Amino acid sequence: HLDHHNQQFCGGRLEKPQGTIKTPNWPESDYPAGISCSWHIIAPLGKVIELTWGKFDVEADTYCRYDYVSVFQGGQSDDARRVGRFCGDTSPVPIISEGRELLVQFVSDLSVTADGFAATYAARDPEELAERGPSPVAPPLLPPVPKPGTSKGKGGKDPGKAKPPPTAPAPPPLSPEGQLTSTVPTGPIACPKTCRRTGTLQSNFCASDFVLTGTVKAVTRGPGEGVTATVAVVTVYQAGALALPQPHKGASLRLAVPCRQCPQLKKGASYILMGQLDTGGPWLPPESFVVQFRPPQHQVLTNLSKRSCLPRPQG
Fold first, then answer.
1. Are 140 and 222 a contacting pair, CB within 8 Å?
2. Which of 55, 170, 211, 276 is least surrounded by Cβ atoms within 10 Å, i.e. has the fewest?
3. May I ask the CATH class of domain 149-315?
């Protein structure tokens, strides 16, 4: 029988369809120094796990070097399958497992401690989650985020609108040097805590400066909360003023992503990318319509690309 306040071991194998994981001493006092906990969550066959964070307070560090929570797809701490490593006092976004297992590891070093965290998990039907739309995926590393200023993270267009107002026609299709009104906002973008996409493939197609599918080859950090994604182009459905070599297929394109968790791009995955263009080049605002590419979508996008993007009444 371990004394509750000296509990150096925590974690375990969790096979119930739902439950809670929390740091030792939560919520009465800080977690102890020098501990390591591993929770191996296993959902019933055919289910996936949704992990949702409650209060979160783990010693802050830009790279989460000292105390941190790591989450891995599957049952092993394999860096190639790490979803994220978290610290600071901002709760991570919910995490959905790819299969039926997740591993959550918590490590504290021998110095500063903090309140800790509590999280809940639940086994879900993959279909139920698919109907809700793709879940926001956790960023690779979440440093403490400074409070955003008053600047609004809005580009010149709002992809959330199903149709542009008559006074602002969409950019002319395939014009080599269109006058683009969309600009990367000056000053820091306020990155949302939860990624939200609005509309459909159709409503976002004409609201975007370019639409293409591509495979992510590399994601590099910086500046701030942003990343730069290098994408190998598969198919271009709407190029706008995007300067791409011919043939498009296989061309390498660098995209600025000011909020690395919205949209979050994983190396090796293929996506439909609907983004904006400005003088600095192509970029993906946090509300961009970006989804993992599935072959049936190719025909839908091909059909959309044959229509002219002019404002038209939509019921």
1. no
2. 55
3. mainly beta
